[in-house]
Amino acid sequence: MTIEEEMKQSYLAYAMSVIVSRALPDVRDGLKPVHRRILYAAKTEGYDWNRAYRKSARIVGDVMGQYHPHGDQAIYDAMVRMAQDFSMREELIDGQGNFGSMDGDPPAAMRYTEARLTRLASEALLEDIDKDTVDFQPNYDESTSEPTVLPARYPNLLVNGAGGIAVGMATNIPPHNLGDVLEACCAYVDNPDISLMDLIEIVQAPDFPTGGLIVGRSGILKAYTEGRGSILMRGRTSFEPSEEDAQRIVIEDVPYQVNKARMIERIAEVVREKQVEGISALRDESDRQGLRVVVELKRDADARVVLNQLYRFTSLQTSFGVNMLAIDGGRPKQMTLKDVIVAFVEFREEVIRRRTAYELGKARERMIVLAGLIVAVDNIDEMIALIRAAPDPVAAREEMMARDWPAQRAEPYISLIEDPRISVPQEGPRAGTTRLTEEQARAILELRLQRLTALERDRIGEELQTLADKVREYLQILESRPHLLALLRGELVDIKDRFGQEGRRTGIEDSEFEHDIEDLIPREEMVVTVTHAGYVKRVPLSTYRAQKRGGKGRSGMATREEDFVSRLFVCDTHTPVLFFSSRGMAYKQKVYRLPLGTPQARGKPFVNLLPLEEGETISAYLPLPEDEETWGQLFAVFVTSAGTVRRNRLSDFTSVKANGKIAMKLDEGTRLIGVQVCSENDDILLATAAGKAIRFPVTDVRVFAGRDSVGVRGIKLLGDDQVISLSILSHQEIAVEERDAYLRWAAAQRRAQGETDAEEGAPEAEGNGPESPDGPDGPDGGVAVELSEARLAELAEGEQFLLTTATDGFGKRTSAYEYRIAGRGGQGIANIDLGRPKGSEPARVVATFPTEPDDQIMLVTDAGQLIRSPIHDVRIASRSTRGVRLFRVAEDEHVVSVARIADLENGENGENGENEEAELDETVERSEATARGDDSHEV
Fold it and tell me: Where are the beta strands (DSSP E) in 279-368?
């Protein structure tokens, strides 16, 4: 035999041994070999429920020495689990001492604890084991024998469940309520054709020893009908008022197999990490009366929201993966609920049949002896004479067996015995007589004289009559299956009446509440802030006070020296957001799932929120419409720093799993600059850091079917220039002459109202450059035309304005009409005058995006300073001008991010002059605290 063949055969033998003899339970008694051996050893050694407790070490020693040649710790661990009321729905071992806890505390050593069988194990699992009800096999050294299965009177596989990992297969069966399971067995006995769904109506769901709740029925239905499924479990909770005019969540049950101490630690972790907001304190008040974990809430916290967040982020909600795999007929089999019940009832039929046959044999043996005694009493004078004449007992016995004895009174009983040795012939010379067997002769010789009294003779007759009635009953059971099933059903009802009266511990909730948390989250505008190092947070928009442009700003985030705020956007708490990573992956999160913070908080790193790989960062963000039904008519436009553009249908990103989805395969050194939603009636505007911009229709970019392409060229870049902004504009067909005429008219209107292109008398106006080459005074001005008031009003209504901001804090609003529509792939036109370089670093464009008259904007610097101003404070200027100062930045400070705040109706205009010193003091103080490493100001 080659080594390959030897390995195959040896491994197969090992695998079968693990599957059949170690890891998987038998469907008949629901036990693995180690559990069966523990219970049998306790029964044979007399450690019964009504006897004294015995040292656990004694039981373990008996099991290891006679039946289970494995480690004592493995035996003790198995015995401990059978004694834990939080592991077993019906305990099989009655333990005294420390047998562990729900907090994961280990049990005391076996030399300290004591144990014995429970009454259920003794009377419902081991009863009748000495009546040839099950097969026995030699133990490991053939010094004794052990049962291959216990004669269980209830389906222990369902009642206590099972779990185990074999070779290439595993089992995980949940526990159930004893009364429900026995009722289902009775229903099957009454109607073998009962449907699986009718059985599920009786056994509605698992019943876990730790109580809790089962959410939804779909997983239960799949588990019972297919043998595999996932059941969602939750801890049972309630709300109570606290002394501080707040609420508290009281956890009364935990899901099955959940470590309570670890669950409490996890709750504390998610509170520290800001995944769950609104918790002020956490206490474990569990005692001998029951489990009680108190979660104290803050005054403004919504208890339902916090509870749903605990369900999401902690083991207060978990799932039980059902895999109903058991040994049936010596082979592993995936079983449905009905399969388990059918297998148990068939096994129970066999047990009762074998027990009845055994008891019939014992009854007949006793009747044979009693029939002999009846014959001896009826012929007492002849018997005495024979015994007195015999030289010894052997001769007397042989003489008794050789003679024919009259058997008129014993004949009715002898006919029930059906033993040809003692039959009574009805015809011939031996008619009406019988011959004694050796057992009968021995019994007669051992007969005490007191049995010859009339009273004792009557007792012999009564016992014989009782045995005769039992024999008739036994024969009826063996000859009639309905009688056998009636007895089986009666025993099931008896077990239910004695042990199955406890109601369900685990509740069932019909609805799965998949969207409960979203329904409970209030709608609120949020400012989402992201730092260069990958920290994210959300802050209520109302937190930020509106200021006039040119102010000092307020401290927007406490950053580290190596970190700075790079992006922010404003959206609703229910807005789904796609996060695009530097690796080209897309991740989807609702805004309310982002960590909530204050303006000074740093936030939480993306690596703790999304499954990012090492070195992977988030480079683009795309807030999406909430209604996914509209996604089919919309598109997602991707733009890279290299100037390439790609268009995909938004519906390509409807389903994004937790581990992300491939969005784009990027070349080395290329970043994803932006992703925006658009329709085919829109234009794309790309702006570069060097002050160039290009506008072209969305339809110039074809729809890509796949997500692995970088797209087509959107703008041709020169030198080290790169794209920094993507904007989506409404497409409008307008002639050059009409555009020029309208722009001249709009400029005249602004001059008449005192809104010049530069802020009069302001030093920042000195940087204004000449009019745009494409403006009304440029060479491309075209032929002057006169427009009607209706056309002017129409153009004014459709006019859009673009805000362009540079790193030096200068910016401007420019009419989108000044950005002519060109072909995709050109070099673009001037977007802003970046002015003369001051120092070694020239100014660069930070952002270009469209705005509305009622908008406000937020500007953030790399020093963590933030300012919020209404957009109407920013003057409208020509495309190639420098604009006005939007943010007064320090010498080494740069604006790094600008965001639009749309439709602000109730914003407050804050002070500018009076509070500048206070704002500056606050900023300096926080900056100094950051430099010292003092994080006390963080949340």
Answer: 279-284, 293-297, 317-323, 325-328, 331-334
Count helices and strands in the chain by DSSP H and E runs: 22, 43
> Residue 775 in contact with residue 818, Cβ under 8 Å?
yes
What is the distance between the alpha carbons of residues 367 and 469, in angstroms, rounded to a whole number?
Answer: 11
Mean of the pLDDT values across residues 343-356?
Answer: 96
The Cα angle at residue 481 between residues 475 and 487, in degrees rounded to 5:
80
Q: Calculate the average pLDDT of the chain.
A: 84
Strands, DSSP E only, in 721-772?
723-730
**Residue 754 exposure: Cα atoms within 13 Å on the Cβ side:** 2
Q: Is there a single domain that holds both residue 781 and residue 914? A: yes
Q: Where are the alpha helices (DSSP H) in 273-336?
A: 303-313
Which amino acid is residue 22, in one-letter code?
R
Does the pTM surpass 0.85? The reply is no
pLDDT band at residue 623 under the 50/70/90 scheme: confident
Examine residue 529 and state whether it is found in any structural domain, yes or no.
yes
Domain that holds residue 436: 350-490
Residue 479: CB atoms within 10 A of its CB come to: 9
Residues of the chain with pLDDT > 70, as a percent, come to 87
- Identity of residue 825: G
Backbone angles phi, psi at 405, to 5 degrees: -115, 135
Q: What's the pLDDT tens digit per position in 514-557?
A: 445 566 677 888 888 877 677 888 888 877 655 555 555 555 55
Give Dmax (Cα) for the chain: 157
Tell me the pLDDT tens digit for each residue of 548-596.
555 555 555 555 544 555 567 788 888 888 888 877 788 888 888 888 8
The first and second tokens of residue 340, run together, are 């388990």
Nearest to 47 by CA among 97, 89, 112, 93: 93
637 and 770 fall within a common domain: yes
Phi/psi region, residue 104 (left: phi>0; alpha: psi -120 to 50; beta: rest), is left
Does the pLDDT value for residue 392 go beyond 70? yes
Of 605, 595, 596, 597, the closest CA to residue 560 belongs to 605
Residue-by-residue DSSP string for 214-229? EE-SHHHHHHHHHSEE
Query: Is the pLDDT confidence value at 703 over 70?
Result: yes
Domain-embedded: residue 476: yes
Task: List the structure tokens of 799.
Answer: 């006019």
Among candidate residues 152, 185, 200, the one where a domain is terminated? 152
Separation of alpha carbons 93 and 38, rounded Å: 9
Sign of the Cα torsion 744, 746, 747, 749 reads positive
CATH number, domain containing residue 134: 3.90.199.10
Contacts of 88 (CB under 8 A, 6+ apart): 81, 82, 160, 175, 209
If one counts the domains in the chain, the total is: 4
| Residue 655 is assigned to a structural domain of this protein | yes
Please write down the HEC assignment for all residues of 645-677. EEEEEHHHHCCCCCCCEECCCCCCCCCEEEEEE
Given pLDDT bands bounded at 50, 70 and 90, which one contains residue 903?
very low
CATH number where 861 lies: 2.120.10.90
Q: Is 501 a domain residue?
A: no
Tell me which of 153-162, 337-346, 384-393 is least confident: 384-393
Same domain, 659 and 801: yes
Which residues form the catalytic set?
A: 112
Over 60: is that where the pLDDT of 616 sits? yes
pLDDT tens figures, 814-842:
999 999 888 899 999 999 988 776 555 78
pLDDT digits (tens, 9 = 90+) for 667-686: 777 888 888 888 888 999 99
How far is C-alpha 44 from the geometric centre of its chain's CA atoms? 44
Contacts of 395 (CB under 8 A, 6+ apart): none
Distance from C-alpha of 202 to C-alpha of 492, rounded to nearest angstrom = 15
